[in-house]
Design goal:
This protein is mainly beta. It folds into three domains: about 170 residues, Immunoglobulins (Immunoglobulin-like, Sandwich); about 110 residues, Ferric Hydroxamate Uptake Protein, Chain A, domain 1; about 550 residues, Beta Barrel (Maltoporin, Chain A). It is built from five helices and 45 strands. The longest helix is centred in the first third of the chain and has 21 residues. The termini are far apart.
Length: about 850
């Protein structure tokens, strides 16, 4: 391993060791702890409020909220006599009198405290609470996208660009912690939406149709092993409210941006019916250039290429479903998702070639492209909870289809200066693509003493068929079918998996070990003049280990390991040479092997009163690393480059990531993310590639400012530092976004945002290629979109958490049923967001 990598990991581990030792120091004073549970079913009551009052003067000493397991621990308590009160919405308050902390009794554990629901306490109470924008967990980070003002009116791509740890490149492709090999799921499952061109699909999905984005950087064996750097799970909106609810929003912005969303839902004790329709249209204006210089013997040749482009995206997303409660413990659900999208692209530019200072050729290009796609997803979900608390069986059957059609009109005019010659070429390309996907899975959870056992099976079948037909201009002005430029590529993948996970808790120390077995079968066929089939079959075991130490009620340390895989996709495998761009050919490699990744992570999380902090030291070693390689087409053709894919021996990433949320007051909260990593990519003498390595970092910060109750501001800034690539480096990139929202009423609000306020987000790269025959260097700059501004109007109706008049009633008969006294509000304080949990969207309702 590279010495710099070892130093980085060693230094980071030293920091974590120091943090761990400091965290484990016992605070001065006494400790009062316990656990709040429901008196009937013993379910833990998360985010209930626990407060301690000094008896001598009724002075409040400390208060806190219970964690997700209902636990609380009040530390640093001086000697004295206290009262403890626990409150939770729609439950009778609990009052424990005369708790004595003495020098001889510093630690007091009250055990399980059972709270009963107060049937006569409240006629109806509805408490609204804004969802926390970010929930940081030791193994998963969830981001509530409804609070992202800078993304409203935008696409899923715009939304993902705002998520810590996630980066989006110039073509809309995703990367996680600097790695582009990331698995994208929809509602926790593979989907037809993620089987096609994911960049185009994410552009067509409105941000308004998404509820939450989850980032899992080191998944356990329970999850699909696909994805070198982890999993991004996009959770689409689904009704969680009782009764009839609905919402509508409309957006309009610069660059012909329009967005609309309409949702209706109804839920009672028997059924939950929901539907959502979203429409999005937008134009993205970009530009770029590429300057290339090649030296061979006494010849110096330069190419200066400029390119302007305009993309117009239109997308419709329709989601609907019904959940049927067959009995109190069994639910059967049916849902469907339809994504319809169109994309038009207009690219124009010119390329000027010079040899030894004299103009050799000028090429003027005007390319028009139009495409459409439709994805259909059908789901059947089954969920059954057994009598034993925590025992559960879930199953899912998903079928998806994907259809894509694309037409390209590629026009080029060649002006040769020695000797003078003017020629034109025109090429029509038609691509028809179809895909079918099946996902069948079942998962079972069995609770054990101080632990649980999980097991499951999954089968996925993905088939895609892409037919590429090219017609070229003939001498009479017509178009002839060109068999040398046409091809059909078929990709078939079948992966069968089984897993088991075992968890056990030894006091504050937790152990989870898992093993996943995957049997993969991949078949590809390139059909042009002949059929060229390839196949890959392999069986692999993917273990995972998680060691967790709960240092205190608010601090957790975790060490984890997992093995993962990244399988090459159809575009990477097709050996056909795409000559659509006469100066930049592209070709896949059917002999590509899947990447094999070993991932290690050490994470620390701490909740303070106004600060949530999670930090991680991670190391990834990827064998058979897949990289894009660009070379001149041949030693005699320096004008044209060809980009293909190759397996390099290995690549490694070692880094440190910090995500923090700071809420110093109700007026301001800050969320920041910094990721610093060291990347090493092995070279390959056969490809004339030298080993490359270097440090890189990226970061972002989001500030939410609420000067008055109905008004909110959001500002976000991001920076991507320079980073190494196999043949050079990417340059730095940065940008700033801003948004504002004003609540006109409790159900109506207006918002506005500007993305890339200073027009600075540009992707720039330097590529160098050296051979014994020539030396080539290339500088490129591209921009996917310029600054955009969007205005949005949103309206909610029905039972969307709108507060109703509270009726405060006391029931003396029920007061006697437990050692408690209802407080003046009858139900206690509302659960507030933060500290790792948050109420359901729209508020928390309690009935008595």
């Amino acid at each position: 391993m590279n010495q710099n990598v070892i130093k980085t990991i060693f230094f980071s581990l030293c920091i974590f060791s120091f943090i761990s030792l400091k965290a484990q120091q016992t605070p001065a004073g006494g400790t009062i702890s316990g656990r709040l549970v429901d008196a009937v079913n013993s379910q833990p009551l998360e985010l209930a409020t626990v407060s301690l009052v000094r008896k001598s003067d009724n002075h409040p000493i400390k208060s806190m909220q219970t964690d997700l397991q209902g636990n609380f621990s009040l530390t640093g308590i001086d000697n004295g006599q206290y009262q403890l009160r626990a409150t939770y919405v729609s439950y009778l308050s609990f009052l424990k009198d005369s708790i004595n902390v003495t020098p001889a009794k510093q630690v007091i554990n009250l055990g399980d405290i059972k709270l009963r629901q107060g049937k006569g306490v409240l006629k109806e109470v509805v408490i609204t609470a804004q969802k926390s924008q970010i929930q940081l967990g030791i193994d998963k980070k969830s981001f509530n996208v409804e609070q992202s003002l800078v993304s409203q009116g935008g696409s899923a791509t715009d939304l993902l660009a705002n998520v810590p740890s996630v980066q989006v490149d110039v073509d809309g492709n995703l990367s996680l912690r600097g790695s582009s090999s990331v698995r994208v799921l929809i509602n926790g499952k593979p989907s037809a939406l993620t089987g096609g061109n994911i960049a185009d699909i994410l552009q067509s999905i409105p941000a308004s149709s998404i509820e939450t984005i989850e980032v899992i950087t080191n998944p356990s064996s329970k999850y699909d092993a696909e994805g070198q750097s982890g999993i991004i799970n996009i959770v689409l909106k689904k009704n969680v409210q009782k009764g009839f609810t609905g919402s509508a929003s409309a957006s309009v912005g610069t660059q012909s941006t329009y967005n609309g969303n309409f949702a209706l839902a109804y839920q009672n004790s028997k059924i939950n019916i929901y539907g959502n329709y979203s429409y999005r249209k937008g134009t993205r204006i970009g530009d770029g250039f590429t300057n290339k210089s090649t030296i061979a013997d006494s010849l110096t040749q330069t190419q200066n290429q400029t390119q302007n482009q305009q993309f117009t995206f239109t997308g419709q997303n329709i989601r609907g479903g019904i959940d049927i409660n067959l009995d109190p413990k069994t639910t059967l659900g049916f849902s469907t998702n339809v994504n319809i999208r169109d994309r038009d692209r207009n690219q124009s530019g010119s390329t000027i070639t010079n040899q030894n200072g004299s103009i050799l050729q000028q090429i003027n290009q005007n390319n028009l492209s139009s495409g459409s796609g439709t994805n259909l997803d059908f789901n059947v979900d089954f969920d059954h909870k057994y009598k034993k608390k925590g025992e559960e069986l879930t199953a899912n059957v998903n079928y998806g289809t994907d259809k894509n059609n694309n037409f390209d009109d590629l026009f080029s005019e060649y002006l040769d200066y020695g000797p003078p010659l003017n020629t034109r070429t025109d090429q029509h390309n038609t691509t028809t693509g179809t895909g079918k996907n099946w996902n069948i899975q079942a998962d079972y959870t069995l609770p054990l003493t101080n632990g649980k056992l999980e097991a499951g099976v999954r089968s996925t079948i993905n088939n895609s068929d892409n037919n590429f037909v090219s017609d070229t201009l003939n001498n009479t002005g017509g178009y002839d079918y060109n068999p040398y430029l046409s091809n059909r590529f078929i990709y078939k993948e079948n992966v069968n998996a089984a897993y088991t996970n075992y968890q056990h808790q030894f006091g504050n120390f937790g152990l989870q070990v898992g093993l996943r077995l995957e049997d993969a079968h991949i078949r590809t066929s390139l059909i042009d003049s002949v059929n060229v089939p390839h196949k890959q079959d392999y069986v692999r075991l993917y273990p995972s280990v998680f060691l967790t130490d709960k240092l205190s009620e608010n601090q957790t340390l975790q060490l984890s390991y997992s093995r993962r895989v990244s399988r090459p996709r159809d575009r990477q495998l097709s050996p056909f040479i795409d000559e659509s761009d006469r100066l930049n050919y592209q070709q896949g490699n059917p002999d590509l092997r899947p990447e094999d990744t070993h991932s290690f992570e050490l994470s620390y999380i701490n909740y303070w009163k106004s600060v949530t902090l999670t930090s991680s030291v991670y190391y990834r070693l990827t064998n058979d690393n897949i990289q894009r390689i660009t070379t001149p087409l041949s030693p005699t053709n320096l004008d044209t480059t060809i980009t293909t894919f190759e397996n390099l021996k290995s690549a490694s990433n070692a880094g440190y990531e910090l995500i923090a949320k700071v809420s110093p007051s109700a007026l301001l909260d800050l969320t920041g993310n910094v990721n610093i990593y060291y990347r090493h990519i092995d070279g390959d003498a056969a490809l004339n590639l030298a080993a490359t390595s270097g440090y890189a970092w990226n970061g972002n910060i989001t500030a939410n400012i609420k000067p008055i109750k109905p008004l909110g501001f959001q500002i976000r800034a991001d920076y991507q530092g320079p980073q190494v690539i196999p043949q050079g480096k990417m340059r730095a990139m940065y940008g700033v976004d801003g948004g504002v929202k004003y609540d006109l009423t409790k159900t109506l609000n207006i918002s506005a945002n500007v993305r890339d306020i200073f027009n600075t987000r540009k992707f720039r790269s330097d590529i160098n290629y050296n051979t014994p025959y020539f030396t080539s260097s290339q500088v490129s700059e591209r921009r996917f979109s310029t600054r955009t501004a969007i205005f949005t109007l949103s309206y909610r109706f029905g039972n969307n958490g709108i507060p109703q008049k509270r009726k405060e009633k006391k029931d003396n008969n029920q007061q006697d049923q437990q050692d408690s006294m209802p407080d003046e509000n009858g139900g206690g304080a509302a659960p507030a967001s933060g500290n790792g949990g948050t109420p359901a969207a729209g508020g928390v309702k309690g009935k008595g």
